[in-house]
Structure formats: C-alpha cells, structure tokens
C-alpha cells in the first residue's frame, strides 16, 4: 500500500483513537462526580421523596458533571434561576442569549437541598410526587412536561444517564459493588445506607420538624408512625376535619411560625397556589400570612402576585 493510500487511513484511525480517548475521559469524569455526590442525592431522596436517580441525572446534566461555570463559580448544580423572592446571593450568567440571574449557593450541598425545596414548593411539580418512587422514567418525562427545561430532548437525556450509569440503584437501596475495571461494567460505589430508610424521614424547615406524606399516608397512619395524636397533626398543619393528607404534602410535627426563615422574604404566586399551600411551603401560620399581606381571610392570591413572608407588605389594603 502506498503512502498516498495509507495516509488517509492512518488519519482516520488516529481520529477514532482520539474520539475513544475523549469518551473514556468524559465517562471517567462522570463516575468521579457520581462517587462524590451520590450520598447527597440519596439524602435528598429521604428528605423530599424525589428519586435519587433523577436528582443525580439532573445534576450530571445541568452542571456538566460539576465543571460548568455555574457549578464552579456559583455552586449551582441544577441551573436554578433567582426568581422573585430569592434573597440569597446571585450570579449573572449568559443563558439563552440573555444575562440571566441564577442562585449562588455557599456550597454544592446547599444547591442539592434547594433543588429539593424548589420542586416541592412549586404546584406545577406536585403531580410528580404521586408517581411510584422508582419510576424514574415518569419523573424524567414529568419534569420536561412541567417546564423544568426547554430542551425537547430533556427527558431522553435524563433517562439515558440513569440507565447508562445504573443510577436506578440509588433508588432501590440495594447492595451494589465498586466500579469494575471495564467502563461498561461500572456500578455505583457501595455506600448506600444499610437497610431501608424510614418511610417518615424527619427533616427541618423554618426550624420546624416535618415529614413528607408518602403514597397511601393519611392522618391516621401517620399518628402510628410518628407516635402523635390526630388532633396535633391537624392543628399544626391547619387541616380541616373534612380533609386528609395528599402524597407529597409537607406535614409539620410542630406548630408553624409567624414568618419564614430569613432566606425567603417574598414569594411570587404561581398558577394553582393558595394561601394555604404557601403557608405550608414556608412553615408560616396562615393567619399571619394573611395579616402580613393585608388580605381578607379566605381570599386567594392571583398568579404573579407577590406574597410577603416576613415583615409587612407596604400599602396593604
């Protein structure tokens, strides 16, 4: 074979080797990120009932396995924008041809927690919490349908990440092995907590203990799980006698407070939200929410309206 004929072949072969090397390097970087942050994704699953596989897949994609500008400079691993009411630090970033305001976190761990709170507090994502906890496909499609991202392939991207890297093992809480030498056989490191986490994992918001109602939970079942009285659950969560719990609902185990925690001073109302749902999101007694905003008790806010969570709204009527 002459040099003239072999040269194109060698160039093509070199290109193939370089491509394989780049893919292998990227794959290794993905695994490094998974090893580092899988525990955070699992902790958030116990806190919020969001599948750890979905949290991890979103983080891998949105942060480009921790290397994106937002992740490096703002500890923002989920691409969450400021939106009205965010009083924390901010970071301006060119997104979709606009200089957009994004949330700036003190740590990546804070970004993971805010991601959980973000999905739990938005009415448009409420239906996702009624899915089977192992239904990562449903969650991926639901996030796209509910408007988390504009990319039409968003659900496909998340599902592929879950299946390529076997992230569903994080949801199953099964024993897994350390990554093997072959990239195709890699699995998630074996640091999943022993045993199944309690169904009613107690967390804190606004310095109030709470749990998230699981599928099939009601006030009667939670009184047994939490060793509480039914009247306490109703009183602390301001639940009328003719109503019960819904899957994904925050259930406070202590009385709510007069105002929100300092990080949240205002809330912009989204379609489907009520004064009650906002009071539950931020752990504020509903009568104080009405009082701070000068609203008649029983009236409801309109989408786009600003609700004050601390202090008193100016020009109250």
Brief summary:
By secondary structure, the protein is mostly helical. The chain is built from eleven helices and seven strands. Helix content is 43%, strand content 10%.
Main sheet properties: 3 strands, antiparallel
What's the quaternary structure here? single chain
Gyration radius (Cα, Å) is 23 Å
Within the CATH hierarchy, at the fold level, what is the topology of the domain at 25-185?
Answer: Lysozyme
CATH class of the domain at 25-185: Mainly Alpha
Straight-line distance between termini: 89 Å
Strands, helices and their partners?
Blueprint: H1 3-48, H2 52-62, H3 69-74, E1 89-95, E2 98-104, H4 108-121, H5 136-145, H6 154-164, H7 168-172, E3 203-205, E4 208-212, H8 219-226, H9 230-237, E5 250-252, E6 266-268, H10 275-282, H11 286-293, E7 306-308
